[in-house]
UniProtKB/TrEMBL annotation:
Residues 187-206 are annotated as: Disordered. GO terms for molecular function: ATPase activator activity; hydrolase activity. The chain crosses the membrane at residues 388-408. It comes from Drosophila erecta. The keyword Signal applies. Keywords: Hydrolase, Membrane, Signal, Transmembrane, Transmembrane helix. One of its GO terms (cellular component) is proton-transporting V-type ATPase complex. This is Uncharacterized protein. Residues 1-18 form the signal peptide. One of its GO terms (biological process) is regulation of cellular pH. PANTHER family: V-TYPE PROTON ATPASE SUBUNIT S1 (PTHR12471:SF7), VACUOLAR ATP SYNTHASE SUBUNIT S1 (PTHR12471). The lineage of its organism: Eukaryota, Metazoa, Ecdysozoa, Arthropoda, Hexapoda.
Length: 428
């Protein structure tokens, strides 16, 4: 019995010490494939193997391999002038050992046919990449460098070869970029702790308001009575959250005030993408509280982030004024209050939010320096602006009216010098 108890204690630690596998990004085009559930959770080798196996039945598979790639290489707008025009194009930000998955598929069918084209010689490239169309075959092209612009041109040549052939093209690398892999290994300790806390007391991340999120890598800490929540994409801090609801739906009804606390064991922030593809489609931040999941929605517009609404206890709360901050800034507010139609209000005190939208930045880096503050204090609220405008219009109308009244009876027409003198009749 003691042996089995010891074994149960050892097994979780052996999983926790597992090596971080390389997870390069992957592009797939030529056919629709399942969308990734999250950009922060790598697609497992077995999952990608299943995708390739299902595609192999009715298609020929062609895989292009760079030496190493990172997500920022794929997100380069000018590096892939050809691939950027192809639809459907499916993007996986991280796939664990994609080449290994293709090799496992090939083990049960035909072997992979390897090619090493000279992508620097465009004249001979077309002949080197010319293949006969045969369903089920797997071809692999070694590019052996990181020249993504040359890769784009070579893949354009190969794609044009198969306009009448069912082909699935896969662009990836042998390994993940070394810097990105080392960064993920650095944060392995936090990832293990986060996963263990989720197994012990995790909560579901499917909410009734249409958001389908998955728990993400994050950390929680307290500094000078401030709650600090870190995530790969955001750094969120606040002093406390206060919920105020009216006892009765009346103007003079008093408020019931409740401090909103994070759920013990799940003090972290989850981040989801509204369009499921990239951060520029909008994001939602989810806090697991003791009362209900708290969802904060932010949308990008004209180079700014807008806080559009907060959902809490099945009530949608909206800010009375516009709350926004620029991409190159972090939001710093002494307090943020949002209101719901059920006569309730939700307030964050000493609220700070930094959104890290660049690939080279990560909120898990404790040495990361947050961007300069964008103060949310509003000197001219919409109500005050409208009041001032109306008062100016009213004063202008009054001034014009008084001017017209005072000018009654005054002769503003001057006498012409050539006219005779006016005859003024008098009594004498």
């Amino acid at each position: 019995m003691y042996f089995f108890a010891s074994l149960l204690l050892i097994i979780p630690f052996s999983f926790a010490s597992a090596q971080v596998t390389s997870s390069p990004p992957v592009l797939v085009w030529g056919v629709d494939t399942p969308k990734p559930t999250s950009i922060f959770r790598p697609v497992k080798t077995t999952q990608f193997e299943k995708i390739i196996r299902n595609l192999q039945t009715n298609n020929m598979i062609i895989i292009y391999l760079a030496t190493e790639l990172a997500a920022k290489d794929i997100n380069c707008d000018v590096c892939f002038p050809y691939l950027s025009k192809i639809q459907p194009m499916n993007y996986y930000s991280q796939v664990e050992e994609p080449l290994k998955a293709v090799e496992q598929v090939a083990e049960q069918t035909d072997e992979i046919i390897w090619h090493t084209p000279k992508i620097s010689e465009m004249d001979s490239l077309e002949a080197e990449m010319e293949l006969s169309c045969q369903k089920g075959q797997i071809h692999a092209f070694r590019f052996n460098d990181r020249n993504v612009v040359a890769h784009d041109a070579a893949m354009a040549v190969a794609t044009y070869q198969f306009t009448d052939c069912p082909v699935v093209h896969v662009y990836t690398a042998y390994t993940e970029e070394d810097k990105a892999l080392q960064r993920r290994r650095t944060h392995k300790t936090q990832a293990i702790k986060s996963e263990q806390s989720k197994k012990v007391g995790g909560t579901s991340s499917h909410y009734d308001d249409g958001f389908n999120l998955t728990p993400q890598l994050g950390s929680y800490s307290k500094v000078d009575n401030m709650t600090v929540l870190r995530h790969e994409m955001v750094i969120l801090t606040f002093r406390n959250i206060l919920l105020a609801t009216k006892k009765m739906p009346s103007v003079f009804s008093p408020f019931n005030r409740t401090n909103v606390l994070l759920t013990p064991g799940s003090e972290e922030v989850e981040v989801g993408l509204l369009n499921g593809q990239n951060i520029f489609g909008g994001i939602v931040l989810v806090l697991n509280t003791e009362l209900s999941p708290l969802i904060v929605e932010l949308m990008p517009s004209q180079g700014n982030w807008y806080l559009t609404r907060i959902i809490f206890i099945n009530q949608t709360h909206y800010p009375r004024d516009l709350i926004f901050f620029g991409f190159e800034f972090s939001l710093c507010c002494r307090d943020i209050t949002v209101y719901s139609t059920a006569a309730g209000r939700l307030s964050f005190f000493d609220f700070h939010l930094d959104i890290l939208w660049q690939d080279k930045q990560t909120g898990m880096d404790v040495e990361h320096e947050v961007k300069p503050c964008w103060d949310c204090s509003i000197l001219m609220t919409p109500t005050l602006t409208q009041t001032i405008f109306v008062m100016v219009v009213i004063m202008a109308i009054l001034w014009m009216g008084m001017a017209m009244l005072l000018s009654i009876g005054q002769n503003h027409m001057l006498q012409n010098a050539n006219d005779p003198d006016l005859h003024i009749k008098t009594d004498t």
